[in-house]
């Protein structure tokens, strides 16, 4: 068996293999090791007791003995399918093991040296298998791995072992039985090692049921769950009660201030359904840590006058965009809003959808949670670049519109506003509103400029914000709530 050198030198440039190199270093330290020894160490970590008891036939005593059953740790068992081995014997027509079965993985290397498809080094190689790389996907990004060549991908001993070690280096979250989310932070090896230590210091759980790291919220979809993870990290950095070590704190500050020395940080998130195997259906690649963190800090500052923890308010605002449907929660709106925030785009149509499709149709509908409008107004101003004066006008008009529509029982007008498909329809509805509710719409909103814009904003955004404010005010039946929600 060949030997393998473990160190934090020579990254491969492949996010999964590099992730595994960091795990190997963390597990074994720097040095040269027998491949067999490292392989067994990893299997030891990846195979856990299931809590069930099995029986084997002990030849020496001629009787059955009990042993603790084991299996590949979840969710690794979705990717590693190798079943345990042990000799068998037939007793009374029934097959029994002759010893507790042992989990194994077979690594066989070529006699001739070849170029490793991942790191490019000349060495003996093995054919890549699923257990060395879980993301056998067609996405262009990974084409370098499953390269579309007719021949199998070839891996040197170091890359093959790192591939297996990768299963010990991810964060994951299971959403019931239906969904599995997987997260891998990718940077230079030293930064990845520091991150690994940071996660281990933060309620990281090596043998958990639903996930190995706590998130602020999660759902069936990838963007919302990614945002739930990022908020958890942001909160740790700002919190006085955080368990972060000084080293971890410095690292987070570097990442969120984007002053990492070697390689900027990227977060890869994968989502899929865990059946017999993992069926990937979506992926996110996120690297705007600095921008998003700055925005988060602005939200916290904006809310620091309240008595509750501003972090909890921010998290609560995002958490609300879901609806109970039967026995499950539909969080499609939260996912779309999270997508917009991760991409620094306008989430307003998704907030509008949530209000009109989920909230307003509910029997016990209430307005948006405290802090929601404050948080998104700051977003519209600072991220989308919306004119503050226009925003103030929309807030005022929308508020009046919703309240009056409520008094006159004219919810249909709000749906007409929401459904306006072009500027003409929008103005027709506004006319209707002036007429039926006896309200005056300010000139500011009624002047459409070149490119179908109103005061520099697309007409659709103006319409959308107006319908959000109006519906929110419509749903604020109590006066006390209204002022809380609408004034900022
Ligand atoms: Zn290699």
> What is the first-to-last residue Cα distance?
68 Å
Structural class: alpha+beta
Q: Strand sequence of the main sheet, in spatial order?
A: 11-12-13-14
The percent of residues in helical segments reads 40-55%
Kindly state the mean pLDDT as a whole number?
89
The quaternary organization reads as single chain
The number of helical segments is: 17
* Beta-strand content bin: 15-25%
Concise overview:
With 488 residues, this protein is an alpha+beta fold. It has helices at residues 15-28, 35-46, 157-165, 189-201, 222-238, 246-256, 289-302, 310-319, 332-342, 348-359, 372-382, 388-407, 411-418, 423-437, 443-446, 459-475, 479-486, and strands at residues 3-6, 31-34, 47-58, 63-72, 88-91, 94-97, 114-115, 122-123, 126-127, 154-155, 171-175, 179-186, 266-274, 278-286, 323-325, 328-330, 453-454, 457-458. It contains 17 helices and 18 strands.
What's the structural blueprint in terms of helices and strands?
Layout: E1 3-6, H1 15-28, E2 31-34, H2 35-46, E3 47-58, E4 63-72, E5 88-91, E6 94-97, E7 114-115, E8 122-123, E9 126-127, E10 154-155, H3 157-165, E11 171-175, E12 179-186, H4 189-201, H5 222-238, H6 246-256, E13 266-274, E14 278-286, H7 289-302, H8 310-319, E15 323-325, E16 328-330, H9 332-342, H10 348-359, H11 372-382, H12 388-407, H13 411-418, H14 423-437, H15 443-446, E17 453-454, E18 457-458, H16 459-475, H17 479-486
Antiparallel strand pairs: 1-2, 3-4, 5-6, 7-8, 9-10, 11-12, 12-13, 13-14, 15-16, 17-18
Bound molecules: zinc ion.
Describe the protein in words.
The protein is of the alpha+beta class and 488 residues long. It is 42% helix and 18% strand. The protein contains 17 helices and 18 strands. The chain has a four-stranded antiparallel sheet with strand order 11-12-13-14, with helices on both faces. The protein has a two-stranded antiparallel sheet with strand order 1-2. Zinc ion (ZN) is lined by residues 116, 118-119, 121, 155-156, 158-159.
